[in-house]
């Protein structure tokens, strides 16, 4: 009883800084839940305040970002309203390490929150990460399939237009970025139709097959072979025939030996 009264006292007197248009009382009510002691949650939320992070500990926001999926899992999706503002604050943090931490875990958070909350609250953050620094983009790229498979089909198709952008990096020597893209495209073949694969993923795959770094090319050969398998299983044979004709024309009959070697490796 003593503990309960103390927690009640701390919670009622806690000064939660917020940028919301709600009144302090409404804001406090929106953050109330009954899963963990409210004072504990209030303390966690207050640690993401940018002014506090600058004066107390510059690493504190990163640690909060790292813990956020665990906090969300503990509270449950019915209490996501308690964390939403904090998540958006961290997602726009000035430190790229904080944004990078969230980028690496956004797919986990999507599983916790479910379809509707993901579409409404996480997709805008995800889109922001796609345009961020390479150090942040790699986080969403490494789990691109894990995140996109949770989206509705129509929403998922919108990202087909953006996949090409992953070929462009801040540093052209960042070959691991392109290698990761090839790995993810292999997984993404299961999420898209034969036409989408032919129209959008095929040009990226052919570009990766001609990469300057051999490690990227090796993964790309596997990508193209998986693409042939996928299109072969499709109801319309046109796509796989066109793809194989292009392979013959572009690589098998290439005037460079490296192109002809590429054809052999894909067949292998």
UniProtKB/TrEMBL annotation:
Q: Does the keyword Ribosomal protein apply?
A: no
Superkingdom of the source species = Eukaryota
- Which Gene Ontology terms of cellular component type are present? cytoplasm
Please provide, alphabetically and separated by semicolons, the GO molecular function terms listed in this UniProt record. Answer: protein phosphatase regulator activity
Task: Write down the InterPro entries for this protein, in alphabetical order.
Answer: ARM-like, ARM-type_fold, PP2A_Regulatory_Subunit_A
SUPFAM superfamilies, alphabetized: ARM repeat (SSF48371)
Q: Where do the record's region annotations for Disordered lie?
A: 11-32
Gene3D superfamilies in the record: Leucine-rich Repeat Variant
Q: Which UniProt keywords apply?
A: Repeat
Protein name (Swiss-Prot/TrEMBL): PP4R1 phosphatase
Q: Identify the species of origin.
A: Elachura formosa
Gene symbol here is Ppp4r1_1
């Amino acid at each position: 009883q003593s503990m309960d009264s103390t927690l009640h006292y701390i919670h009622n007197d806690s000064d939660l800084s917020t940028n919301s248009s709600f009144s302090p009382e409404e804001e406090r009510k929106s953050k109330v839940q009954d899963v963990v002691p409210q004072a504990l949650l209030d303390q966690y939320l207050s640690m993401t305040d940018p002014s506090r992070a600058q004066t107390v500990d510059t690493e504190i926001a990163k640690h909060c970002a790292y813990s956020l999926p665990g906090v969300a899992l503990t509270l449950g999706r019915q209490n996501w309203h308690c964390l939403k503002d904090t998540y958006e604050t961290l997602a726009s943090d000035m430190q790229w390490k904080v944004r990078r931490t969230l980028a690496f875990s956004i797919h986990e958070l999507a599983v916790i929150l479910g379809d509707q909350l993901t579409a409404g609250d996480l997709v805008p953050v995800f889109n922001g990460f796609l345009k961020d620094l390479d150090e942040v983009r790699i986080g969403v790229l490494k789990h691109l399939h894990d995140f996109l498979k949770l989206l509705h089909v129509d929403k998922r198709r919108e990202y087909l237009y953006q996949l090409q952008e992953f070929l462009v990096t801040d540093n052209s020597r960042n070959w691991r970025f392109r290698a990761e893209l090839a790995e993810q495209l292999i997984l993404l073949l299961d999420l898209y139709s034969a036409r989408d694969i032919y129209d959008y993923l095929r040009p990226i795959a052919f570009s990766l097959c001609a990469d300057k770094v051999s490690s990227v090319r090796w993964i790309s050969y596997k990508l193209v072979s998986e693409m042939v398998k996928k299109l072969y299983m499709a109801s319309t044979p046109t796509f796989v025939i066109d793809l194989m004709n292009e392979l013959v024309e572009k690589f098998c009959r290439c005037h460079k030996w490296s192109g002809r070697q590429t054809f052999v490796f894909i067949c292998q």
